Amino acid sequence: MIVDDLFDLVSYRVHPEPHIRLERERCQGCSHRACTFACPARCYTYSEEREQVDFAYEACLECGTCLLVCDRGALSWGYPAGGYGVRFRLT
Amino acid sequence: MTANSRGNEPTPTAFDAIVVGAGPAGTTAALALAQAGKRVLLLERGEYPGSKNMFGGMVAWCPAPEELLPGFWARAPWERAVTKRVLSLVGPGSTTSLVFQAAAEAEAPSVGAGWSSDRSLTGLTLFRPHFDRWYAEQAVAHGVTLLNGCRVEGLVKKGDRVVGVRVAGPDDVVEAPLVIVCDGVLSLLAAEAGLHPGVKAEQVALGVRALYLLGEEEVASRFGLVGREGATQEFLGCTENVRGGGFIYTQTETLAVGLVLHLDAVKARGLAPYELLERFVASPAVAPLLRGARLVEYSAHLLPEAGRRMVPRLETEGLLVAGDAAGFCYTNGLTQEGMNLAMTSGLLAGRVAAQALAAGEVTVRSLSRYRKALEESFVLRDLRTYQKAIDFLHHDRLFTVYPRVISRLLEDIYRSDGRPKARIGRLARRVFKGELSAWQLAADVFKIGRAFL
């Protein structure tokens, strides 16, 4: 198994509107950037050039890890609209 | 109602109760209310119940749903009946395991091979997209109105009293005298109701799980299983320096393989959960079990892990909380229980709610019977019994030093290299040296004793 394979196996119905919003002004100066490694879906990445955390909601597994590891209140967090987001298929 | 809602369009005040979340807690609560003659609306944000659920584990046998649907476990869609539990301590050069095997009946009537003759020793592995959907269908057959694809945005209050839920825009409201929130571990609705201040990283664990397709016969032969028998295996010492453990659960033709990691430890150590998972599945203790298997799914979720310390206030005017949303999930290091607590709390919530509605008194006073019923049941009693064990599992050495020294000690005991052996006590002193002081060991033995004895 290689990590990249994992993320290709998740099925989603992506809503056009993000269900989580990151307020970048609040996360400037964060010392740990725990969202960038703790998020199990790798939704948060740190861009060295722009010196900021980038966030993409499409691959979100709706677990809440980012909400709980962020201590700057930089996330307005919610679940995707009804019927949208991750769906666990069965094999 | 929302544009994508399905089923009957409810009009305000058409329902006696609204249940949020069609997982095991919510569906049980809704079913109990419907059987008591109440009109119940069950709201589910997924496309269907279970579609949001990644559970790949085992439910401990639980009598609660049998009280509502006799023969429940014989009919419910489950994968394997677990009678074999393995606990493995992983060291750098060896793995040491303890295997529990309940005596199995060759042919249990109506269920099939694999059940223990004592069904309370039998756990069931299952897939929640199958199980939750089937369970909700049973509830619908008993009169529950299920609305899928419906996200609850918040509570509707009149003064201190919860009188309904908001479902889409600010004008979309469904009212009922009672709301039961079973909205999962983060429990945003219980927080909104003021029952808890918000879940904290140190109160939860992050589970990451990979599902491997192996085939029915291979699963059986690799774990020594007959018929529908199942096995579970837990691993300690496989999460590097992050507090947590690994697991393998057997389904009919798949294996759920993953890690459960304390979220505060993930944050402090700076390790990505999927990288730990990648190393876990490649480790000598796990890789042989997965040889030739195909990775088919990945998922992650949070689990409540703080025991009674995170149980919120359970009722307010017009509202009750059940399941993960109430923190009813724990591990004491040997057992992991959650779904059985969810179904039992849902049953008790539904019954107390039906009584309160029948008496026309949906107040904190009448609803507080729910907590009393939970205190008398195994739900809050087990959380109390194992609180010290739950706390002890937040002890770093348990996950790092102990699996390592126990493996080294057994390696020294089993080693044959042509040299004379030392007494076991002396070998033990040698492996503990540098890892752990006598004082630390004594303190840990004391804590373990206090936690479990």
Overview of the structural elements:
The complex is a heterodimer of chains A (about 90) and B (about 450). Chain A is α+β, with helices and mostly antiparallel strands. Chain A contains four helices and six strands, in the order H-E-E-H-H-E-E-H-E-E. In chain A, a hairpin with a 4-residue loop joins strand 3 and strand 4. Chain A starts with a helix and ends with a strand. The relative contact order of chain A is 0.29. With about 450 residues, chain B is α+β, with helices and mostly antiparallel strands. The longest helix of chain B has 20 residues, at about 340-360. Chain B is globular. Among the domains of chain B are: about 15-80 and about 125-195 and about 310-375, FAD/NAD(P)-binding domain; about 390-450, no CATH class. In chain B, a hairpin with a 3-residue loop joins strand 14 and strand 15. Chain B has helices at about 25-35, 65-70, 70-75, 130-140, 190, 215-225, 265-270, 275-280, 285-290, 340-360, 365, 370-375, 380-385, 385-390, 400-415, 425-430, 440-450; strands at about 15-20, 40-45, 60, 80-90, 95-100, 125, 145, 155-160, 160-165, 175, 180, 205-215, 230-235, 245-250, 255-260, 295-305, 315, 320, 330, 335. In chain B, strands 3, 4, 5, 6, 12, 13, 14, 15 and 16 form a nine-stranded mixed beta sheet that branches. Chain B contains 17 helices and 20 strands. The chains are: A alpha+beta (about 90), B alpha+beta (about 450). Chains A and B meet through helix 1, helix 4 and strand 6 of A and helix 4, strand 12, helix 7, helix 8 and strand 16 of B.
